[in-house]
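Exercise: predict the fold of this chain.
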Amino acid sequence: MNAFIARQPIFDVNLNVVAYELLFRDGFDNAFDWADDTEATSRVIVNSFLNFEIEKLTGGKRAFINVNREVLIRNYIHLLPANKVVPEILETVLVDREVIEACQQLKKAGFDIALDDLTELKGWSQLKDFLDVVKVDFSQTSVEQQSFFADHFLPRKVNILAEKVETREEFSRAQQLGYQYFQGFFFAQPEMLFRKEIPATKLHYLGLLQEINHHEFDLIDLAAIVERDVSLSYKLLRYINATYFTQQREIRSLHQALVTLGEKQIRQWASLVAVSMIADEKPDEVLRMSIARAKFCELLATKAIQQGRVTDAFLVGMFSLLDVVLDTPMSEIMESVPLSQNIKDGLLGEGGFERQLLDLAISYERADWANAISLAQPLGLDSGFLPIAYLEALEWASQSIDLMG
């Protein structure tokens, strides 16, 4: 059985990732319909943890997973580690004696318990002593309800999480109301409250992107750019000595390092480092998502019908959040960085192979399975390859961030 998985970050008030919600499917055709046989879907959850290795999925952070009534009362969650998993009771569960007893057993075993998609208190009062986190759906509740839930749960020492937060305004409101955790795509669009001038330090890294994305870049000119920045020099030598550790001797000069890497690796390394330096004031998850997208798009390109533009696929993923990072429209950024037309079209939504890959990557990240299906098929991609590539991309992103120090 193929098992599909995606993750969505959960942030604290400082936009640090504290956990991930993991979303499971046993295949695109099923879409994890809870009306199907519960034992089968429960096996998907357990097998996914065993097959995918939870540490690679969450980077050591806790995982929130949805559970329905049957999964809850049959104690399947007890097969998973209490210190790494937070069962998230679906809003469709009807509370009765069996559900209450199941929650009691979970608490005895050391689990925290979350309640998903709260829109009203009715029916949940019997679980008030077991809940550690309550998720309030900001797309389905009014401002008055959101305020009411904060006033109700905060005095009871229950953490409240604002879910489906899509805008900066909603995030700010949730903060003001006292919500401790946040989930949604509010950070994935630039905050255009005013026209921000790009700082000189970030222009320097844009210059690096300009240099390495010329059709034929000069190693001497690139080495000069790297030499002017101590942190860049350090990151390059650290990266290459860790990546090429099987060589007999360490790389000691920048020019030697660049020659050893080769053109493709230079473009990837320089793009990765430049984006990381430009994004230094943004949430860490923005950088992590950029790197994972880059690798995911690259891996998809290697298996797609239309092959041969793997480097462009990587760069489209890497640069896909530059507008968020710089708080500048993507169209303006594209005017200052001489990318290939394929990459520009992909980033500006003009269509083409690179855009198809990027849209597929974003759909998979968001667990938008229906759209992922429609995008994978014309690319000739086997649906079973998607979770493999996704997990490899997540792992590669974590390793790359470690190598950058």
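Check your answer against the key: The chain is about 50% helix and 10% strand.
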